[in-house]
Amino acid sequence: MFFASCFFQSGFCANYLSACQKVPDVYKELVKNLISDGFEKGFVCKIFSDKRIKFNPKVMPRKVTHKEAKLHYDIFLERERIDRARAFLKENKILFASVERDFGVPREIKAAILLVETDLGRYLGSSLAINTLSSMVVAKDFNAIRPYLPKEYNQLKSAQRKKIEKKLAKKSRWAYLELKSLLIYSQLNKMDIFSIKGSIFGAIGLCQFMPSNALKFGVDYNKDGKVDLFDPADALASMANYLRYYGWKDGLKFKGKLKVIKQYNHSTPYAKTVIKVAERIGSS
Ligand SMILES: [Ca+2]
Q1: Can you give the pTM of this predicted structure?
Q2: Which residue, 205, 219, 268, 277, shows the most beta carbons closer than 10 Å to its own?
Q3: How many structural domains are present in the chain?
């Protein structure tokens, strides 16, 4: 079918072939896999031959050595941040009330998650999600990422090395699924993939969803025909939709709340911080 259209539309064909030839070597196998998984060749080659496509081998070591529990969450309890969260809630009062009515998750919890995740939208990540996820997919070889690992990883025993190699393979497979979701998300919502910034692990939007969750839980709350997680209305409703799916309901006790919020980020210090921040936002 493709070659037939190539035959009749030689201009398109030439563009397509030259785009595929420009795909950097590091991404050739990835592009091949995406095409065999059903993505349209022209679409994938155009993206991966773009000058904005970068490979960052430092992404994967961060994923392998990341320790969530060590992060300092206390900063989110600072007065200045709580005040800003309260002001944000006030500015978006109608939206928060509407989402709370439709999904039943308290506005203070949502504001607290927004504060912790993206500082209320101030920090949405500095890299393009496509680059972060693609880099993670291909950076699965231990020797290739070795220079970027912390010193303690320099002299690993064979069993430890095997463990890391297994972890790399697993994270690479995970990143591939997320990359596919990101491509689908951008197509479905007609978003330019090069406009989608992400966290160091490829989470996107005000609510910092991984792309697979954007597809599963994303809500077009402002009814403009697309799920835009960079839009406060869609981001808040999607977040509430996610929390409701994982068991948020009225009357949850502390342990129940903790359990649901840990589905958002698998860290007890994170979940405890969100609850504390929400309490402070709500108290006058
Ligand atoms: Ca929308």
Answers
A1: 0.90
A2: 205
A3: 2
